[in-house]
Write a structure and sequence with these properties.
By secondary structure, this protein is mostly beta strands. Helix content is about 0%, strand content about 20%. The protein contains no helices and three strands. The protein starts with a strand and ends in a 33-residue tail after the last strand.
Length: about 70
C-alpha cells in the first residue's frame, strides 16, 4: 500500500499515512487533530548498478547533440 506524506498547515508537523491509491486525495487530519493539511509531493529514488546500463557502442555514434550528427 502506498505511503503519502502530509504537512499540517496549523502546527507544521509532517506525517505519513498508508492508504489505497483510490484514497490518495482524501483529506487527512494530522496526529494532533488539525484538519488543515496538504499532501506533499514525494520524490522516489530508484537505484541500480552500472551493469544494468547498456555498454557504449564502439566507434561512437551515441545520441545527444554532440556525437549524434546534429552539431554541424
Amino acid at each position: 500500500m502506498p505511503r503519502y506524506e502530509f504537512r499540517c498547515r496549523t502546527c507544521g508537523d509532517t506525517f505519513e499515512l498508508s492508504r489505497p491509491m483510490a484514497e490518495s486525495s482524501a483529506p487527512a487530519a494530522c496526529p494532533a487533530g488539525h484538519d488543515d493539511t496538504v499532501r506533499l509531493l514525494s520524490t522516489v529514488a530508484v537505484g541500480g548498478t552500472s551493469a544494468a546500463a547498456p555498454a557504449p557502442r564502439a566507434g561512437g555514434g551515441g545520441g545527444g547533440c554532440c556525437g549524434g550528427g546534429c552539431c554541424g
